[in-house]
Design brief:
Farnesyl Diphosphate Synthase, two-stranded antiparallel ribbon, mainly alpha, globular
């Protein structure tokens, strides 16, 4: 079975599980749940159903794949996969507000349509719904002790996510951010959720502690490599593919890995960034300085290193069957993407 085949198998049940959670029969809350449906890609801004705006659902798919590759039932893991996707989308709603982003998946972000206050409230609702989704594991026959473990892992991840976002926001006003600082931020903001995704899939499958630890390390390194790749695309990606202007992260003074490295090795780049670089010619010059200072090469090398460590963790996890092959294929797709 190919990765596409697994996606076709999982996607419909996953969407059904998600929709059954993000639902209310109270007409007074129709607008609140309509906002959530809009953000999740199920509706337009007038709350009319659409079928083409949903995200890729990478994280829940990975959870189900890991569960199956560890010998478990992917159907039993559906509540955990749902919880992960809802948590991810809660973080996106809040990130969009905090970062001032006006577009998400090619559409207006929630706060730009309904205002910051209502978008914050919608994000909070989605966070709570993610917790309720996870507790449905009991209904799938998962032992109570395992559910408690899952809830503990999940909420520890929530704290890590907000910690990573805290660092990311703070770094925007600093010029002395180190690579070590950057990696601490990414472990929370990006890698923690992928680690959790793999941990929950293995836990629900009843995997032994050593196998759970191996898949957790796989998820951690996959998350680190994923974010570094994202940082590279944020500066050198094709705008027609990424949907972002060339050098967008430089214009925002975002402390992505190439920027952090450039600040540490190039006095000229440091001075340019202090000038609140915004104009296209300034962004272009800053991008060139990062090339010349070796910052792009540094980021690409670190991405390859984490990629290799992720594959090593995957090998140590000793996963089996077609699901294991699909995980390897997904890993390769994520780390060589141009979007």
């Amino acid at each position: 079975m190919t990765l596409v085949t697994f996606s076709q198998r999982y996607l419909s049940p996953l969407e059904a599980e998600m929709k059954s959670i993000v639902d209310s029969d109270d007409d007074r809350l129709a607008a609140l749940f309509g906002m959530l449906h809009y953000h999740l890609g199920w509706a337009d801004r007038d709350f009319r159903p659409v079928t083409t705006a949903a995200g890729k659902r990478i994280r829940p798919m990975l959870c189900l794949l890991v569960c199956e590759a560890c010998g478990g039932s992917w159907e039993q893991a559906l509540p955990a996969a749902t919880a992960i996707e809802l948590l991810h989308n809660f973080s996106l709603i809040h990130d969009d507000i905090e970062d001032g982003d006006t577009k998400r998946r090619g559409r207006a972000t929630l706060w730009t349509i309904w205002g910051e206050a209502q978008a914050i409230n919608a994000g909070d609702a989605l966070f709570s719904l993610s917790q309720l989704a996870l507790l449905r594991l009991i209904e799938r026959g998962v032992p109570a002790a395992t559910v408690v473990q899952a809830v503990t892992i999940f909420n520890t991840t929530c704290v890590a996510l907000t910690g990573g976002q805290h660092l990311d926001i703070g770094f925007e006003g600093q010029d002395d951010v180190t690579v070590a600082d950057y990696l601490a931020m990414v472990r929370g903001k990006t890698a923690a959720l992928l680690t959790c995704t793999c941990q929950l899939g293995a836990l629900i499958a009843g995997a032994e502690p050593a196998q759970r630890e191996a898949v957790a390390q796989f998820g951690l390194n996959l998350g680190l490599a994923f974010q570094v790749r994202d940082d590279i695309l944020g500066i050198w990606g094709d705008p027609a593919v990424t949907g972002k202007p060339a050098g967008a992260d430089i214009a925002r003074r975002k402390k992505s890995l190439p920027v952090v490295h450039g600040l540490s090795v190039s006095a000229e780049f440091r001075e340019l960034l202090r000038q609140n670089t915004r104009e296209a010619n300034e962004v272009s010059w800053a991008t060139r300085l990062l090339e010349e200072s070796g910052s792009r090469a540094f980021a690409e090398s670190l991405c390859a290193e984490y990629h290799a460590q992720a594959l090593e963790g995957l090998q140590r996890a000793d996963l089996s069957g077609a699901a294991a092959e699909a995980i390897a294929a997904l890993t390769q797709t994520l780390l060589t993407r141009d979007y």
